[in-house]
Specification:
about 700 residues, mainly alpha, rod-shaped
Length: about 700
């Protein structure tokens, strides 16, 4: 409308002032037409840099976004190595303890075997000496008879007296032979009984040491086998957990990369959409501007040759046209105000509808997070319940260990007392008639004690094995209960999380579809209102133009001066170019508006996407780290428990093997000391003395009878 008003003013000026010349005014009009055309071209050219700048900055932010997720799987490898070290340490300790326990039995067996050979050799030597004494007695008695006969032959006296003395001497010799033979036989029995007693003591001591060695070895096997197997299984479990964590890290890392790629794809799509808005302007705006400029230049050239004297007749019409322009101007402003209000109402309605769609989605997310909190609380409670089941086990194990130590101590004390009684037997110093019965009675008592100790040890071992089986059964029952509860809780948590995920994804998809529908409807309505307003304004402009255009024809007819005719022609040419410019500028403005809207929407979406990407990365890293910390803590606690309990038992067995070794070998050492002290030589020495004394006493008696 301003251009029309300017055209009328120019007509009035031409009519009133006759202008300042035709040619300068036509040149000025052409310059104005050129400026109008160039202004729109510059606006079109400025659109592409704005697109590149906006999208390029967003692309740089997307490419610079941190999507690197720390991989915690190496921590599982370190813990697995530590658990393997526990297993190796426990195995090495058990090997050392086994060597000590086995050496106890081996050393006792070797020492017992050596002492048994030594005792038998000493006893055989003593028996040989007794046999030699027996032969010596026989030879001496035979020699005494011959010597007695020779002396009797030299004696003077009657034959009857000589024979009586002979019979009396022979009887004395035979009595001495008989007594000494009986004495030597008793000494041999004493040596045999002493050897039997020594062999019984050696067997008892050896069996006690080897039995204790076997018992310690068996206990060691029971204490180490299950923990070593459990540590090996735990090592593999940790390795598998590390692989699972690495796979989870890769999946989450891939998800973050995909999320960032979706933002890049969104920017590429936005760039393509922006190009689709700007590119058509080159084929739509430039040709129309060129055609308008050519048409305006041609009209001005023609105007300079044809219009003359057309200004004078239009003076009366100018006032009416100006009033019409004022009226139409008010109508145009009212139409613009109405269209703007309608568009604002549509935009506000679309925003309200979007907010209404977002409310149910937010409620769904809040409910999902509430359910997740409940799952976390349930898992924590389950952990406390499961751990409580194991609290009673250490107490029972301590009771079993105390009972075992008490029984072992009692058995050892009883065995030591029995061996002490055996050592206290003064077999060598007893009178000969009491030697054999005493040795046999004491040997029988020792045998009964040894048998009872063996039976009692077997019964205690059986009872301890039954108690051990009961505790193992209780541990397995607790383990089964704990595993069942954990499996049930895991299944419920996975099911609920799957249901929540499906619900959230379905809500997001529905909300996205509804928002798209609302925006599409709003855009359609806004376009309709805009088109109707433009049509209404164009109709008003055409109404005024219909009144102004005839002036361009009437002024040349009514004005006598060429100025008036040129002015009218210039107005018409400029108006045509202005119309072309308005049309082109309207296209550029519309394209810029759509471009700004799209770029703004893209920036908001990409900025939100970057925020969501960082939140997803931080959340994934926190969640993964938390899960790894919990898993590693549980694994480490299990490993330390297995290693600590088993190591304590292994150390105890090793200590017992070391401390009990002197006690178990001391009876063998005592027997060795007795053998070194000539335990079997004493009866021979005593018998030799008695034989010598009896034989020496026999000679004078025979000499008295032979004199």
């Amino acid at each position: 409308m301003n251009e029309l008003r300017a055209t009328v003013a120019k007509h009035r000026s031409t009519v009133e002032g006759f202008g300042s010349g035709i040619t300068p005014r036509l040149s000025t009009a052409k310059g104005e037409v050129e400026a109008l055309a160039q202004g729109v071209v510059q606006q079109v050219a400025a659109l592409r840099p704005s697109i590149s700048g906006a999208l390029g900055a967003l692309l740089a932010q997307v490419n610079a976004a941190n999507v690197t997720l720390a991989d915690p799987s190496s921590r599982f490898d370190a813990l697995a190595s530590e658990v393997k070290g526990h297993e190796q340490t426990l195995t090495a300790s058990s090997t050392t303890a086994r060597t000590k326990a086995e050496s106890l039995g081996q050393e006792a067996a070797a020492k017992s075997q050596g002492l048994e050979a030594q005792a038998k050799s000493s006893a055989e030597s003593s028996q040989g000496q007794l046999t030699a004494l027996q032969q010596q007695v026989a030879q001496k008695c035979d020699a005494d008879k011959k010597s007695f006969d020779a002396k009797l032959a030299k004696r003077k006296g009657s034959k009857e007296e000589t024979e009586a003395r002979r019979a009396q001497g022979y009887a004395l010799i035979d009595q001495t032979r008989s007594q000494l033979t009986q004495d030597l036989t008793g000494a041999g029995s004493t040596i045999a009984a002493a050897l039997a007693a020594v062999l019984v003591r050696l067997a008892t001591s050896r069996d006690a040491a080897t039995g204790r060695s076997t018992q310690l070895t068996s206990t060691l096997d029971g204490a180490v086998k299950d923990p070593v197997s459990a540590l090996a299984a735990l090592h593999q479990e940790i390795v598998n957990a590390g692989k699972t964590t690495k796979d989870a890290h890769k999946q989450q890392q891939s998800a973050l990369e995909t999320q960032r790629k979706s933002l890049v794809d969104q920017l590429m799509a936005a760039a393509a959409a922006a190009a689709a808005i700007v590119d058509p302007l080159d084929t739509q705006v430039a040709p129309s501007l060129t055609a308008g400029k050519t048409q305006a230049d041609g009209a001005l050239d023609t105007l300079g040759k044809t219009i003359a004297g057309q200004v004078a007749s239009v003076t009366a019409q100018l006032t009416a046209v100006e009033k019409l322009i004022d009226q139409v101007q008010k109508q145009v402003e009212a139409a613009i105000t109405t269209v703007s209000g309608t568009i604002d109402t549509l935009v506000q309605g679309a925003l309200t509808a979007v907010e209404n769609i977002k409310a149910p989605l937010k409620a769904t997310l809040d409910a999902a997070f509430t359910t997740l909190d409940t799952l976390v609380a349930t898992v924590s409670s389950l952990k406390q319940q499961v751990m409580a089941l194991f609290d009673v086990l250490p107490q029972k194990l301590e009771q079993l260990q105390a009972l075992f130590q008490q029984i072992v101590g009692s058995l050892e004390a009883l065995l030591e007392r029995a061996m002490g009684l055996l050592d206290a037997i003064p077999a060598a110093d007893l009178p000969k008639p009491l030697v054999s019965p005493a040795v046999q009675g004491i040997t029988q008592v020792v045998t009964q004690i040894t048998t009872q100790l063996g039976t009692l040890s077997s019964q205690v071992g059986t009872q301890l094995q039954a108690v051990q089986k009961t505790i193992v059964s209780q541990v397995e029952t607790v383990q089964t209960q704990a595993q069942t509860q954990i499996d049930t809780a895991t299944t419920q948590a996975v099911t609920q999380m799957g249901t929540l995920t499906d619900s959230i994804l379905q809500g997001i998809e529905q909300a996205t579809a509804q928002v798209g529908q609302v925006i599409a409807a709003a855009v359609t309505q806004i376009g309709t209102v805009k088109d109707q307003g433009v049509q209404q304004i164009q109709a008003m402009k055409q109404q005024v133009a219909a009144r102004v255009t005839p002036l361009d024809t009437q002024v040349p007819q009514r004005l006598e001066a060429l100025d008036a005719q040129v002015g009218s022609g210039i107005d018409a040419a400029v108006q045509a170019m202005q119309t072309a410019r308005d049309s082109a500028e309207g296209q550029v403005t519309s394209a810029k508006g759509r471009l700004d809207s799209q770029l703004g929407t893209t920036k908001t979406s990409v900025t939100g996407g970057l925020t969501a990407l960082e939140q997803a990365r931080a959340g994934a890293e926190t969640s993964l780290t938390s899960q790894v910390d919990q898993a590693l803590a549980a694994f480490k606690q299990r490993a330390e428990g297995l290693k600590s309990g088993a190591q304590t038992q292994v150390d105890s067995i090793s200590t017992q093997a070391t401390t009990q070794k002197p006690q178990l070998l001391s009876p063998l050492d005592a027997i060795g000391a007795q053998l070194q002290g000539g335990a079997f030589a004493k009866p021979v020495t005593a018998a030799n003395g008695r034989v010598t004394s009896a034989l020496n006493a026999l000679g004078p008696q025979l000499d008295a009878l032979a004199s």
